[in-house]
Each structure stands twice: as C-alpha cells, then as structure tokens.
TrEMBL record:
Residues 247-398 form the Spore protein YkvP/CgeB glycosyl transferase-like domain. This is Spore protein YkvP/CgeB glycosyl transferase-like domain-containing protein. It holds the Pfam family Glyco_trans_1_2. InterPro entries: YkvP/CgeB_Glyco_trans-like. Signal peptide: none annotated. It comes from Citrifermentans bremense. It comes from the Bacteria.
Length: 430
C-alpha cells in the first residue's frame, strides 16, 4: 500500500507547482480579498487530544498557505463555546505558533468563500450540508469509521445519501476497504468520486522526533508492561475490548507476578472488575501526543481487542486503531483484533499479532511472547518498520493533497495522473 519514493516526490512537486500556478489567479471575494483555496470546518479542532486531526489539518495549513480552519468548538452553547475554544486555541498556538491566526471560531457559512471546503466524518458533513448548499460551496470529506457512519443502518444511510446528493459534493476519501465497498455496492455516489487511501493520518514525524530508547524486559526493567489506550464510549468499554483486556490481565497476573498493566484514556479504577488486579493497573487519564513517546518507551505490548457492532448497530473501528498505529510507530508490539478482515497488508505474527476477543486465547498468545521476549522485540521492530512504510504522514498525506487538488481544478488530477504514468514509463496522452 506504500507509494514508491520517486512517485511520492513527483506528486509533491505536482502539488507545489499547481498551487504556485493557481495562487496568483485566485478569485477575489467581496472587497477585493483573495478567496482561500481551502477552508476546513471541524467541531473538535484545535483540541490537541485529537492527534489525527492536528496532524492532518496542520499538513493542509502548511501546504496551502492561504488555508483556514473554522472551528465549531463542539457546538456547545455560546458562552461555554467561547471559553472552550479560547482554551483550545491558546494551547494550540503555543505549540504551533506558525499557524497563529489561521484557526477561528465558525460564525456561519454566509461569508465563507473558498475554492473547496473540507470536513471529516459523515456527522459533520451532514450537520452543515444545508448551509453548505445555501452558500454554494464545493466540498470534499473523509468518511472515517465512527462519527455517525454505521454499516447497514437506515439513519446513517439517510445522512450519506443527503450529503452525496448535494450538487456541491466533489469527492469522498475512504480509509477502509469495507467503507469503499459499502459505498460502491450501495451506489451512494459515482466510483470516480471515491478515493480509497488506506490508513489514517497520525503525527509520525513528531513521534519519531521525540522517541526515546526502548527499555527491555527483563534486562533493563523488572516488569513486563502491557497497555490499553482508548476512550470509553459505553458501559464496560466492550466496543474497545476493555472487558477482554481486564479479564486477560486477571489471568496473566495469576501466573506472572511481574506483569503490569497501563490504561490511557477515559477509563478509571471504577471500571475494573473487583478482585485480582489490585496494584497491578495504572491509569493515566486522557493525554496528548507529547506524552506518548516516553510512555511507549516502557511498554512491551499494546492490546486492542475491539469488537464491531456493539457500541451501536453497524458501528466499527478502523484497522488498526489510531492508538495502535501511534504505539507501533514508537516500537511497541501491536496485538489487535480484526473481526471484519480489514487488514490489507500486515502479516500476522510477522509484523503484527491478530488476536481474538477471547481472554483465554489472548492470554495464551501473550504468554508465548512473555516467555521469549527476544521474539517479541524482533516482532515489535518489524511492526515499527511496516507501520512507517504505510502510516508515515507524508505517504498518507500526498494522495490526500492530490485528491483535494483534483477537486479544486481538474487540471490537478490530470497532472497527477501524468506524473504517475511518467514514473511507470507509460505513454502520456492528452
């Protein structure tokens, strides 16, 4: 699924050339002001807790110097909205001063002028579709798992059909093959309007820059450490496999007293079952990206036995989850489930471990690596290398940039196709 380096560089050159060529000719709005090439609308950004949003939107802000982000600040009542937004923006601008002034509170669509609007998740696209259509703004969006997208559900389908029926809809980016197949089989939109880019956008460069040397068991530390990283969306965290994690932990501590467990996210001690895990689990709460490089340096396994269709009918997670991708990029062995067979490129037991949602079987698999830690660290190194090939931010973002450019101007799509054909040695036709 990775892009050869030569093609990758050429696409980047096409993007820069296209932007340089079109920027001077950018249309002017009222008062003679230049119309931005891209406006991003989001309900959470610039909250730093959402690492994938920060990574993706920052990349667009860097590549499109006139791009803007309009934040809906979770659409809470205005007084709380403003306080929340101000806190987010101040923290964001401290960490990313180069983007100061380019993220503002969304005040409505009537005054927005841009060549393209971009959103993520079907709920966001649907929430704003009437205003987008009234303003006549062309738009594209990414249909990530979650955010209101549920397979085979009437309400989700209704939202999809409304958004795709808009005369202003240009393209949808999908990140999982089940999403692509669902849209095409259901004839929600035209095949040429679907851009399949497997994976997700994570801050790989930041994680790599801050990565610390790994501490290995048992030579460099006295505990074998397993982590679970997720938000709690339902009682028991069954959708994320927290029940499987805790039962696996209970079984492991009964035979391995030096195993420790670590939980990052919105779970707490009250979520633990009674008996058997006292003093064995540490909770860290919700954390931002800068916490994880040092945290993962001491972790041996991240366990993510998530289950589809239990949070809500048709609801599912991508493979692997964003938390697993971040852990893998930091050199942690990823043990995750794949009940929907979404894995397109990773080899089980070579660079990832696919686990069932069965605590007894998960316990057996973990013990195999606990008893032979060298095998675990060899697997973790291969996991890191494989994840870097697929999830490096540049490899993820370049096809996304090309997709958005093709929505702004058909010539961008033609030039991108020509660049790819040239790299492959194929004949380029007009």
């Amino acid at each position: 699924m990775s892009i050869p380096s030569g093609i990758s560089r050429r696409i980047g050159e096409v993007c820069r050339t296209f932007l340089a060529r079109t920027r001077p000719a950018t249309a002017a709005g009222k008062g003679g002001k230049a119309v931005p090439s891209l406006v991003i609308v989001d309900d959470i950004f610039p909250n730093l807790v959402s690492a994938f949003r920060v990574a993706e939107y920052n990349y667009y802000l860097e590549q499109f110097p006139d791009a803007q982000v309009r934040s809906a600040a979770a659409l809470v009542p205005f007084s709380a909205n403003w306080r929340r937004f101000r806190g987010w923006i101040e923290e964001y601008e401290r960490q990313y001063p180069g983007f100061r002034g380019r993220v503002t509170l969304l005040g409505g669509f009537g005054k927005i002028r841009c060549r393209l609007m971009y959103l993520i998740f079907i709920n966001n696209a649907y929430r704003f579709i009437e205003e987008i259509d009234q303003a006549g703004i062309p738009f594209a969006f990414t249909l990530y798992p979650g955010g209101g997208f549920h397979l085979g559900q009437e309400e989700s389908d209704r939202k999809l059909r409304r958004v795709f029926s808009s005369p202003n809809f240009r393209k949808v980016i999908v990140t999982q093959k089940v999403t692509r197949d669902y849209l095409l089989q259901g004839e929600f939109c035209l095949p040429e309007q679907v851009e399949f880019i497997y994976g997700g956008v994570l801050p790989s460069e930041l994680l790599q820059a801050r990565q610390l040397p790994r501490r290995r068991y048992p030579t460099e530390k006295g505990s074998f450490d397993i982590c679970f990283v997720a938000h709690k969306y339902m009682e028991g965290g069954i959708d994320k496999g927290f029940d499987v994690f805790t039962e696996t932990a209970r079984r492991l501590v009964a035979v391995c007293p030096d195993i420790r467990f670590h939980v990052v996210g919105t779970f707490g001690p009250s979520d633990l079952p009674s008996g058997g895990l006292e003093g064995k689990v540490t909770f860290y709460g919700t954390r931002t990206t800068d916490f994880f490089p040092s945290f993962y340096a001491g972790m041996d396994i991240i366990l993510s036995p998530n289950v589809p269709f239990v949070l809500a009918p048709g609801a599912f997670d991508g493979f692997p989850t964003g938390c697993c991708i971040e852990a893998g990029l930091c050199g942690v062995a990823v043990f995750c489930s794949d009940p929907l067979d979404l894995n397109p490129c990773f080899v089980d037991r070579e660079d990832i471990v696919i686990v069932p949602s069965n605590p007894a079987r998960v316990t057996e698999i973990v013990l195999e690596y606990y008893r032979y830690p060298d095998r675990l660290y060899e697997l973790a190194a291969r996991c890191r290398d494989s994840f870097l090939r697929v999830f490096d931010i540049r490899r993820q973002m370049q096809p996304r940039l090309q997709a958005l450019l093709s929505c702004m101007d058909g010539q961008g799509e033609k030039e991108g196709a020509a660049a790819l054909a040239q790299e492959k040695g194929e004949e380029v036709t007009a």
